[in-house]
């Protein structure tokens, strides 16, 4: 009876009981329809999109006291040194055969604690939607301290082929980028010009003011000759 009570106390007060919740988000994509949100929550994923899987891991309150102080080490009486309880979140293909993303959780004291004393932390993992069809993934939370404390959740979403309208938009955007004039090579190209606040920036699109404005003719000639000599030396190397 005492052993059974000890096991019950261990499970209620020490052993971590976790739960995973995953959602799929696509950020920064232009919509085909006016007024449609630029971020979709598990709704619209197109081929080529960068998909963010947000995994929220929650640990239930342990013990009878809410918001109790977390122990510095896991329960390991025979271990000579302290061993903190740590977690890692993984995003894998269905069945766990291929790991697609890993995030190490911060120490438990840095997790968000609600009024009941439950701890939660959210990890964001990204992957490319490379082909159309249903994607079946898994989110895992693995514990470094306790066996059989790991938890798993399914992550499913559909990837749609890009619509003709979307393809035309991307093609037009690529054409506009290709039609932009190349940066000028020659006078003023690649020269670092100091701003009035002392910072420097590269100006290759607009013609710079004469850096020797106000300099007398003799000094100007000497400076230009020195620059020409430097260019000749570079050409001989």
UniProtKB/TrEMBL annotation:
InterPro entries: C2_domain_sf, Ig_E-set. Residues 198-211 have a biased composition (Acidic residues). One of its GO terms (cellular component) is Sec62/Sec63 complex. GO terms for biological process: post-translational protein targeting to endoplasmic reticulum membrane; SRP-dependent cotranslational protein targeting to membrane. One of its GO terms (molecular function) is protein transmembrane transporter activity. It comes from the Eukaryota. Residues 184-221 are annotated as: Disordered. This is Uncharacterized protein. It comes from Prymnesium polylepis.
């Amino acid at each position: 009876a005492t052993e059974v009570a000890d096991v019950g106390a261990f499970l209620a007060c020490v052993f971590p009981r976790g739960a995973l919740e995953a959602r799929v988000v696509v950020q920064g994509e232009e919509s085909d329809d006016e007024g449609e949100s630029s971020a979709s929550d598990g709704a619209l994923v197109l081929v080529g999109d960068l998909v963010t899987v947000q995994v929220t891991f929650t640990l239930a309150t342990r013990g009878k006291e809410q918001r109790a102080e977390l122990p510095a080490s896991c329960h390991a009486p025979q271990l000579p040194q302290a061993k903190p309880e740590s977690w890692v979140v993984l995003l894998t293909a269905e069945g766990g055969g291929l790991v697609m993303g890993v995030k190490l959780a911060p120490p438990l004291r840095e997790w968000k604690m609600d009024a009941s004393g439950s701890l939660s932390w959210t990890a964001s993992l990204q992957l490319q939607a490379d082909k159309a069809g249903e994607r079946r993934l898994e989110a895992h939370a693995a514990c470094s301290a306790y066996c059989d404390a790991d938890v798993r959740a399914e992550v499913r979403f559909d990837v749609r082929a890009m619509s003709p309208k979307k393809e035309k938009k991307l093609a037009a955007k690529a054409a506009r980028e290709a039609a932009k004039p190349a940066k000028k090579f020659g006078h003023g190209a690649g020269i670092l010009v100091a701003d009035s606040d002392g910072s420097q920036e590269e100006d290759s699109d607009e013609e710079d003011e004469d850096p020797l404005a106000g300099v007398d003719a003799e000094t100007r000639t000497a400076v230009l000759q020195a620059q020409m000599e430097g260019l000749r030396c570079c050409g001989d190397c």
